[in-house]
Each structure stands twice: as C-alpha cells, then as structure tokens.
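Section 5.1 Outputs to date
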Amino acid sequence: MRNNSTTPSGAASAQTLPGQQKEKTRYSADELEEFEKLIVSKLKDAQETLSYHKGELNGASVLGDHDTRFSNLEDGTSTAEREYHSFMVNRQTEYIGRLEKALSRIKNKTYGICRKTGKLISKERLRAVPHATLCIQAKKVST
C-alpha cells in the first residue's frame, strides 16, 4: 500500500498534514478592505498632485506682462518649468492608472497575487508599493 503523503519519487506532496497550516493563496476580505483604503487614500493624493501640476503647466503657458530685460532668462526658466510639470503630469497619470488597476484587482479578489509566481506578495511590500504586481523574488529576477 502506498503512502498518500509522498509522490512516487518520495517527495512530499502539497497536501496539508495535521498540525501544519496551509499556505494562503489569497488575502481575506478584511485584508483587501485595508489595502483598498490605503489605495483610495493614495489615489486621492495622486489626483490632487496631478491637478496641481496641470494647473502649473497651464499657468506657465500663459505669459502675463513682464519686464523685457529678463525675457531670455524667463524663457529658459519657463521652458524648464513646463518640461518639469509636463513630466510630473505624465508620471502622476501613470501612477493613477496603476492604482486604479490595483483597485480592480481588489474587486476581482486577485489583489496581492504575484503575476509571475502566483504566490502572495508580502503585506509589507504592498503597503510600501500598493500597486505592485510582483513579489520581491520575481522583481529581483525581472530587473
């Protein structure tokens, strides 16, 4: 008679033995709610930051009355400011998109599952980078 706790090669099977905890494959509803609150807060902050940079970008493109003695210096400065605010608008837009996708994964109950390994991403990582889709191991391999 064969022992069901090992495979034909003698390796331990994935069955949970008495006294062992089964490895979690998903976060609980309470844990997902915690992450959702964090993401919603970060999303609000990101949208405010995006609004600020859009406003600055629009304000920088409207030139009012100014002293022509400093026109060349101001042109260079305003160009640098426009480039900076344009960069920040793009960056915030991408970040908001990632946060929104994370909220979708929460609703689908797939949030926190590494897309490479299928294992849970650590809570610490998700608290630091709530839009993460890779666990630390997979991230190290991909970079």
